[in-house]
Amino acid sequence: MTTSRALTRRLARATGGGLITRTVLPGGLRIITEAMAGVRSASVGIWVPVGSRDETPGLAGTSHFLEHLLFKGTTTRSALDIASAMDAIGGEFNAFTEKEHTCFYATVLDRDVPLALEIVADVVLDATVTAQDIDVERSVVLEEIAMRDDDPGDLVHDEFAAALFGDAPLGRPILGTEESIHALTRRQIHGYYRRRYTVDAMVVSVAGNVRHADIVRLVRRAFDGHLDGTRPPRSAGTGVHAAPSRRVTVRPDDTEQANLVLGGHALSRHDPRRFALGVMSAALGGGMSSRLFQRVREERGLAYSVYSFASGYADAGAFGVYAGCQPGKTEEVLALIESELDAAARGELSDAELERGKGQMRGATVLGLEDAGSRMTRIGKSEIAYGEVIGLDEVLARIDRVTPADVATVAAELLERPRCLAVVGPFGEHDFDGAV
Fold first, then answer.
1. Are residues 59 and 205 located together in one domain of the fold?
2. Catalytic residue of the set 34, 67, 137, 159
3. 338 labelled catalytic
4. Are 407 and 282 part of one and the same domain?
């Protein structure tokens, strides 16, 4: 979006927080703030709509690798300069990469927001990405992959995504693979950085003891000379799949516990039925009173951990159930999970269970927003994913409007779809053939 002047509008007054205000600068950079009364801190985030689904197979892991590299130095600051400046003000500076976006953020005292915003913008816009830094950080990323491989509870989710989406971008791990990280060159990484990190696609979100007009002024200064970028085309999406890419995938691992995920394709993040899906997931496996927790853990003691989850992307989604149990109990746990999913598909979740599910969603939505960092994340992620910020009151109202009929319809559609199973544990590759 290109304009001759900044466009500013007030969006909503957030539940328990302050006014949310949005400005679009000439060139398309979006700034969104939430003023929080009674705090002396603020959190600054710069969001880039670049993640692992934007990578070709030859660039697998580049988005996450690049996240590491931007902290290694800019044209005006060394890595030590960046760390020293943040430590001197007691600030926290970090970043994370997901499937569809990357966020760089800092949380500081309110008086230090100008410096924090300057440093975060410097890192995002003017990193040097040198060959020497790439060689050093390559070892760090490979260690991170090894750590993931040593944590079967994390690894099984990557295996589930691969089974569900196959060799499409959503099916590949955010970290990449040992082979892809070893093969990446400075030319590839730096080219990806310059093509993808364009200002007109970014969002700056700030929450805390701040004034919107002050933030706009600081952003203009920090982004000076960078406000005329051209947005790159997004990689082609995976679309909505009718069936998993693979029905069963087993990752043999010499562990004391079996880790499994059973699930299938679900709703995109733009589907209005996502609130009904959230209620269904909470009722099935969202808390200690949920069906899965009661049946699998409380009544039979078969697993220490069991829960359900839903993930929504731009044009696809996933729903699944995770369980960790002793290897000898895997068959029984899997049978119980399938039984409860089938029951939910038949509309057997009770009104009382669904009301508890709605209560869990309401609590998770509001109680997770008690600090500036969580508020910054909510408004920034909403803007980068939806192009708007829905006020908390409206989110809670949408949860409240979910009816048992809404949940029954979503459950019947999603839970009767073909499922896939991912298992990590002391098993052979074909031990679960025909299990789903």
1. yes
2. 67
3. no
4. yes
